[in-house]
Amino acid sequence: MASNVDPRLGGSGAVFQDFDLEEVFEKTKIHVGREESMNFIVEFGCENAQIAFDLGIDDIRRLLDQDPNEKDCPIRWMDLEKGHGTNGNFSMQPIAKTPPAEPNDNLALYLQVKDTVNYFSTDQTRRAFCIGANWLHRRPTPDHGHHRISILPPKHWQWLALCNNHTVLSIHERPSFEPVPEKENKQSWYRHELDFMRAHTLDVLLQLSTIGFDLYKNNPLAQSSIRESLRKLPADRQAFSRQQSGMSAFINYEVGSLADEGTSNLFYYLFEDYVAAGPLKAAERELEEVTHKILENTHWNKVSESSEIIPTLHYLSKDLREFKHLFENYKNLISKIMAVGRVDPQQSNQLDADRRVFLTNSALSRFDRLGDRLQYLMLNTIEGYLEEIAALSTTYFNLTQQKDSQATARLTRSATLLAKLSVFFLPISFMTSYFSVQIEDLYIYWSATTYWYSFAVIASVSFVSLFFFSRLLMFFSDVLDDWAGKIADWFNTLIRAISRFRSRDEDNDA
Fold first, then answer.
1. Residue pair 43/66 in contact by the 8 Å Cβ criterion
2. To the nearest 10°, the Cα dihedral for 402, 404, 405, 410?
3. The pTM is what?
4. Pairing mode, strands 167-172 and 75-81
């Protein structure tokens, strides 16, 4: 398909180009990566795909009012930056609205919603179903070493709208970059973060061209193959138009048009983004490091690293709880999408071409499987990590308490040794002081032999006392404590008896 002016744009000059041409394919990659890019519109079918860039507001509104070309390109995807008009009649107020200039309740609500990663919004009209949520994208790799960076990736807000004329809209908020770490180049950081922010959109877009099919054949997590899968539909399904397929309620699973199938799968693949699953491996590695540090505390000579372990456990637990809330949000959002997208077969014959929005059975099955994966692979894994963090916290504090008890026991043994040494040297010190008294009536009778005989006797008695009298003193201490308790009980009984006797005498006198 050669580049041409699409007549449905009313001669506005917007040019659709053949997306299967290599130069257009390369131009598309450059366009999506540019920060000043405003939008792109791609229309495709089994055999053809065309794309246009940076259309004006009037062209976008005119396209929204027109159905795609059901013969060659029956499926349309419009990717817009915030600020371009839409005609879907759905509200985008909770996030898109500019915050109030003066502090008030609305500003507080706006800031709370803006900083809440697990917030989402849904809206539905006769012509479209719209969802808005935070999607995560990779954080650029720092060139310098930094303190712990949150494992929770940066977020960006995006709206996805499924219209009843085989059109899917993806509407992005203006890029909001997280603070750049110290010593990092801001321009390079913003450039890489913008690339990561638009990476999933680019992955889905490039696979709508025949040139992009082979680029992703070895990357299963990024594969969407929407257009490729349409070629595998039976010929009778490819020939169905919107009017011929009716409601496409799929009482028979094989019934439904190519446009229904392509639009539903495009909406699913734009929703499905596995970037949020990557940080779970980082959480696992961080848990392994913390576990190793905590178990090292079993060695009595290892100094406890409380300044590192406790903050790491705290922030890791905080990040994982936010991940849990985010995935629970996605799961709830999937439930709402399936509730809106599923059609009651009993009403399928009563609706005409201007029917409400729905999803095909294949897309509903994909959403159902995605919900299961969120539960069994993500939420259960996060719950396991949180339980492991709780167990590590308990283990760490138990080990710390045990080491404190051991240190106290060592201190007690040292004090006991000093007490025993005092038992040995105190009598000798007393004897030495006695022999040093300068009283003539005493020291004239002393000699060196007298001193050393006295020293030998007292040192021997002190040495025996270290082993004998210490146990004897403990025995007498216990006995004295028992006697003291009995005497205290006897005095208490005596006082109570005297009190009762005085009370009885006062009653008799009265």
1. no
2. 130
3. 0.72
4. parallel
